[in-house]
Amino acid sequence: MWTKLWAALASVERVLLVCLMLALPVIYGINVLLHNLAPGLARHLDGVDELSRFILVWLVCVSLGYTMDKGRHVSMNLLQRFIGRSLLFWVQRVIDVIGALFCAYMAYIGWQFLQRIIATGQVSNTLDVSMGWLYAALPLGMVLLTLRYVRYVIFPSHRPALDSTD
């Protein structure tokens, strides 16, 4: 059951990441084409730069958990060469617990900040949408990363294999 849950979460993240990654060049491509071929229409697309920033922030935050699940986060693996397997196991558990606590705290702070942004009614300059859409990416990304850390604490075998190469 847990394996299916994690696989479903990774699939949803992957689809969202692919859509966001494809949206950036499409939006910019249309913007460049309109600026060159129909400058009169291009002035109606003032929000493309801001929309791209929104998408980029979402892309980074949503990719946090997925990247962790694939073992692609930056890590310092020099220590693993000098300590035994059993000690390494416990060091990883401590790191996972600290990581889960830190990410949960960041999700909480991000959620509080999001609530303040929504309460003030801030809207973006050119898109005229709530800035809450931008700031919602941080708590979501931190929750996804917290879930991964908790997963590794509960199921240590789910942790991606450490790279022994540089």
Give the overall pLDDT as a whole number: 89
Major sheet characteristics: none
Kindly state the percentage of residues in helix: over 70%
**Shape category:** elongated
User: Can you count the beta strands?
Assistant: 0
Number of helices: 6
Strand content is: under 5%
The H-and-E topology, N to C, reads as HHHHHH
Q: Could you tell me how far the N terminus lies from the C terminus, measured between alpha carbons in angstroms?
A: 35 Å
Rg calculated over all Cα atoms: 20 Å
User: Which blocks of ≥5 consecutive residues have pLDDT under 50?
Assistant: none
What class do helices, strands and sheet pairing give? mainly alpha
What do these coordinates show?
The structure is a single chain. This protein is an all-alpha fold. Helix content is 72%, strand content 0%. The chain has six helices and no strands. The chain has helices at 2-37, 39-42, 48-69, 85-120, 132-135, 137-154. The longest helix is centred in the first third of the chain and has 36 residues, at 2-37. The protein is elongated and about 65 Å long. The mean pLDDT is 89. Belongs to the TRAP transporter small permease family. It is a multi-pass membrane protein.
